[in-house]
Each structure stands twice: as C-alpha cells, then as structure tokens.
Amino acid sequence: MKALIYEGVETLAVRDAPMPSPAAGEHLVRIHAAGICGSDMHAYLGHDERRPAPLILGHEAAGVLEDGPMKGRRVTINPLVTCGTCRYCRAGRENLCPDRQIISMAPREGAFAQFVPMPEQNLVTVPDDFPLDKAALCEPIAVSWHAARLALEGLHPSMARRAMVIGGGAIGLSAALALRAMGVEDIKVIEPNDLRRAFLQARCGLEASAAPEHTATIVIDAVGYAATRSVASEWVEPGGIIAHVGLGDSESGLDIRRLTLQEIAFVGTYTYTAQDFRDTAEAMFSGRLGSLDWFDTRPLDDGATAFNDIRAGRIAAPKVILDPWAHATTS
User: Fold this and answer.
1) 26, 27, 19: which is closest to 3 by C-alpha?
2) For residue range 14-37, what is the model confidence (pLDDT) as tens digits?
3) Residue among 125, 121, 186, 173 at smallest CA distance from 147
4) Which residue, 42, 102, 256, 303, could crosslink 48 as a Cys pair with Cβ 3.0–4.6 Å?
5) Cα gap 69→52, rounded to integer Å
6) In this structure, are residues 48 and 249 in contact, taking their beta carbons and an 8 Å threshold?
7) Which residues does 287 contact at the CB level (< 8 Å), separation at least 6?
8) Residue 291, Ramachandran bin (φ over 0: left; ψ between -120 and 50: alpha; else beta)
C-alpha cells in the first residue's frame, strides 16, 4: 500500500509500505480521509520522542471497512485503543487507561496510508449522506468536546458561562463549536494569525480577536505554551476555570499565586472517553456543530508540502485533510 512515512526531522516521503494484517477482533479500514494534527506536526519537527522515525503518522481518519460481514460500512475511527478491563476503562474513563495505545504512535502505525487495522469497538458508523472527509474531523472535535464538557462541569453553577478559547486552530475552533453546541453563547477565540482569524469569523461565524479584550469564566487553552498559560492565568475570572488541552511545551506560565488566591480551577484534559467520541459523532451527524467545511483537502502525495505550508502559516483553514487515493496534479 501507499503511505506517507515520517523518516526524520522535517522529512516525509510517500513510500510503499506492507499491507497491515488485522489482529483478532480488528477490521481493515480503507482510509478515505486523514487529518493532519498538531501532534503530527510536533513529530515532524522532532519534538515528540513517542513518535520516532520511521513511522506512519496520522490518527484523525475515516474510511470504509474492507473485510468481514460488515464490508462496505462507512466509519470514523476512534484511534485510542484501550484495554477495556482496568478500573479506568470500567469507569468510562478510557482515556486514562495505563495500557492505552493510539495509532500513529509505536507500536501502531497511523492513518496517513491507504489502509489501517482497527478494533471493532473503535469504529463509529457514518451515515450514508455524511461525507467521509467531514467524518475525519470527529477525532479532533472529540478532543475539544471532552475539554468543553469538563470545563462546564467544573464551573461553579453561580457563574455566568462566558468563554475564551486561546488558539484558532482545529482544536480551538472545535472547542468553540462544542461550547456553542452545549449552549454557551458568549465565546471569544484568541488567534494572532490574521488569515486564520478572518477565516474563523467569515466561515465559522465566531468572534475572534488577536488579544483578549475582557475576562472569561471559562478559558480553554488549545495551544499549551507558557505564554498562553500566562494569558489564561491573567484573563480568567476569580472562581473560574482553565481547561488546558494544548501540548505546546511543558514550561510553567501559570500564575499559581493568582490561581490559589482567586480559587481558580485548573484541569488538564487528554483526548476523550469513548462516550465523548460517540457524542461528538452524533452532534456532527445531526448538524449541531455547523457545516464542518473548515478544511482543505490534498492528495497524500502532497503531504510533505502540506506539512511545510502549515508550519509556514500559509494555510488559512484550521485543518488539512489528506486523501490516500487522490492523485497529485503536476504543472
């Protein structure tokens, strides 16, 4: 099969790769769409020791079952594979499973390929009238759905629901859409990139600015650098909550004294539970998360160029989807 393989720092190439063999309880999925995630970009830049080269990246994907009695079934993939038996899995907190694995991280190859094997319980059926490229957005939106849910559950009931989302990439945009679907009306996205900010406002109907203009009771940091944690610490209201979903770096940035004296809650959020993933899929399919047309699609052959364009800030859309079966055009 054809796959986009991470071969070293800032080096990606489309190569022939062995066809995967599904294990017991798994199905082979023919990938039709796979999104580029921030974690893929971290690996590409050599910043993720959990993803050593050579490796097939990509974990935001949708496709069609290639084998078994359900062959032809259209699915979106929950890439988080868990044991199902530990106390976290039994409690419905599968994202905390100590034995969790995720495709695109050894030992599981990722979805920037024509085929990937997945356990049956990780597959969510996609309606026939719902595009598979949009279905590939379920994974990043589920990350943000989980963060938004935890933020709202942690906010004191006496406080107004006024949200600030730091970062206008796919996770930040998805967090804003999830909050809106959950009934939050006052949402501001902070995004310094002019192209991205204009896109959020024109295409997604979100209020966006280059810097905070007023405080918020809920702050979602979808970037995760010391500088953005500093902004979150400064602009969250007393008694409010910061939900931290970005994985930019592990430096400080938090004003711990202010968080303590103003009784501000801080919650780290990682991926999603299986129920969050299913709830996100249902919200997408029912139209509660909008038109979901905020991505560019490119052939897998153009994957290396897409990574380079994302790094250089040349893409306004918050997400790039790769199609393993499309052919690159030549000039």
Assistant:
1) 19
2) 999 999 999 999 999 999 999 999
3) 173
4) 42
5) 36
6) no
7) none
8) alpha
Question: Hey, what amino acid is at 192?
Answer: P
Q: Report the pLDDT value the prediction gives residue 330, as an integer from 0 to 100.
A: 46
Provide CATH 3.40.50.720 ranges for the chain.
144-268
2-137+292-323: what fold?
Quinone Oxidoreductase; Chain A, domain 1 (3.90.180)
Residue with structure tokens 């009306």?
185
DSSP 250-303: ------HHHHHHTT-EEEE--S--HHHHHHHHHHHHTTTT-----EEEEEGGGH
Q: What pLDDT, in 10s, does the model give residues 41-88?
A: 989 999 888 899 999 999 999 999 998 888 999 999 999 999 999 999
User: pTM of the full predicted structure?
Assistant: 0.95
Q: Residue range 184-211: average pLDDT? A: 94
| Interval 254-295: pLDDT, tens | 999 999 999 999 999 999 999 999 999 999 999 999 999 999
Alpha carbon separation from 149 to 180, 272, 275 (Å, rounded): 11, 10, 12
- Contacts with 246 (C-beta within 8 Å, 6 or more apart), sequence order: 38, 166, 167, 171, 221, 222, 223, 224, 225, 228
Axis crossing angle, helix 274-285 with helix 138-154, rounded to the nearest 10 = 110
- Of 228, 221, 226, 223, which Cα lies nearest the Cα of 244? 221
Pure H helices in the chain: 38-44, 87-90, 132-135, 138-154, 170-181, 194-204, 226-235, 256-261, 274-285, 303-311
Q: Which fold has domain 144-268?
A: Rossmann fold (3.40.50)
The type of residue at 91 is A
Phi, psi of 156 (to 5 degrees): -60, 135
To which residue do tokens 């079952």 refer? 65
